[in-house]
Amino acid sequence: MGKIMIKKMTILSLATILIAFAINIEVLGKNNSEQQNNDESNVIAYLMAVEIVNEVKQDAQKSILDNQRIRIINLGPVVNHPGVDYAPTVSADGRTLFFVSNRVGSRENNKGPSHDFWATTKKERLDTIFTIPYNIDTLTGLDYLNVNTIYNEGAASIAADRQSLYFTACDRPDGYGNCDIYFSKIEGDKWGRPVNLGPNVNSDNFDSQPSISADNRRLYFVSSRKGPNSDGKPKLENMDIWYSDRDQDTDEWLPAQNLTCVNTSKQEFTPFIAADGVT
To answer: Secondary structure of the chain in the HEC alphabet?
Structure first.
């Protein structure tokens, strides 16, 4: 018996493609550690999108989405493959879709292809036809100094400048916890050496799912670190949304703060900050 979970949402456009997300079918009846060690053949994840079409008649008493007809679209075999495709994020111009995949062409480790960052493009913002995906970082010989490595990379966020990538990387030698948030800036047509965002952002626990504001000044992310709703143990119910601001003078990231106005005693995850900075 499986269950369907929406793992990641990213706003693409309020006109046609609103959301890209990954559907994950998990095997039930196992605890978290068992699931982490589980063979990946038990996990299916693929990328979808939501198309909204304006209704002819608009009801002023309803929200914008209540006035829409919604159609879920599978992005198809060009983007998806038989393995794992998840954690989509879209560039500000709506033409490039970044995601994580373990397809052939990803870095190999002792378990097979690792989870690498891939990208696909489309000609127009509102198109649903994408090009063949490509691995965004194929440089070799730099060990963990690449964006993609033999270790697993996870959820990412592309800044509005289309030059800055904030992403999750796990089990790297320079990490503070099992998963940390890193930054890389594009240099020409290649991504530069990733930089760990440091102890003001990362903890000795689980830190992941970054979402950067349009002005590149505030970073939202998920952490299971000790806080108002967490005892600091790496478990799902300890997941809260945190944020860190970039200091205007030093350009350094300030100590992370718990987003108390949103978090509860339950789990919160997958933050997304819209381009307006308030949604």
So the answer is: CEEEEEEEEEECCCCCEEEEEEEEEEECCCCHHHHHCCCHHHCEEEEEEEEEEECCCCCCCCCCHHHEEEEEEECHHHHCCCCEEEEEEECCCCCEEEEEECCECECEECCEECCEEEEEECCCCCCCCCCCCEECCCCCCCHHHCCCCCCCEEEEEECCCCCEEEEEEECCCCCCCCEEEEEEEEECCEECCCEECCCCCCCCCEEEEEEECCCCCEEEEEECCCECCECCCCCHHHCEEEEEEECCCCCCECCCEECCCCCCCCCCCCCCCCCCCCC
- Give the separation between CA 34 and CA 8, rounded to whole angstroms: 22
d(CA 163, CA 180): 20
Q: How far is residue 131's CA from residue 119's CA, in Å, rounded to a whole number?
A: 9
pLDDT in tens, 109-167: 888 898 999 999 988 766 778 899 999 887 766 667 889 888 888 888 988 888 899 99
pTM, full prediction = 0.76
